[in-house]
Amino acid sequence: MIEVYYVEDDEIIAKSVKQYLEQHNGKVSLFRTIADAKKALISHRPAIILLDWNMPDGQGNELCRWIRERWIELPVIYLTVRGDSCDIVSGFQNGADDYVVKPFDLAVLHSRILALLRRSKNREDTRLFCDDLILDREKTAVYCQQKEITLSQPEYQIFLLLMENKGKTVTRRQLLEQVWDSSGNYVNDNTLTVTMKRLREKLQHPLCLKTIRSFGYRMEDTK
Fold this sequence. Notes:
The protein has helices at residues 11-22, 34-43, 60-70, 85-93, 106-120, 153-164, 172-180, 189-202, and strands spanning 2-7, 26-31, 48-51, 54-55, 58-59, 76-80, 98-101, 127-130, 133-136, 141-144, 147-149, 170-171, 209-212, 216-219. It is an alpha/beta fold. Helix 4 links the parallel strand 6 (76-80) and strand 7 (98-101). The radius of gyration is 21 Å and the shape is elongated. The model has no long low-confidence stretch (mean pLDDT 90).
């Protein structure tokens, strides 16, 4: 089953697309505002995004850029009445993978979705995010508000472990065992405290990095 998020404020079009795709092995969640779509994406990532350009609380290109900052490989298709060449070019420049002008044939749209998913099937998104923090596993790089931050190896390993477990509390014991003990470097508990303090400072004391008193730490979106 293909999970689809469709960001569209036109109820008639949204329902027709949803009905057709769900008759063809799809599961479609509808969102009438950009804010609702962002909130849903933070909690869960679907297989593909369908996106209208003109929304009540902004423009689709804003959401498309927001998605691309976080997930390079998440497929995005514009479904819009804006068919001028400058709009189409802008859509692709903002990160869209495909651009479909209304009115469109539902069977053709379904075929485009399947083709796009085939191309992206074996690609893995290497980036993790939490609020304005991004960790790129392929580049071994960390960014805060789009600016790259230099971390020591222990700081990076701690941050990676927390980001990979976003939404879950990672205990101090787990951090000590996986960051230091796994390499044969036995350290005391104070080393973790000092390293975490330096990590917070380098990341500009992010609200999304929470201390769970007497237990551990958790990454959790606040925006």
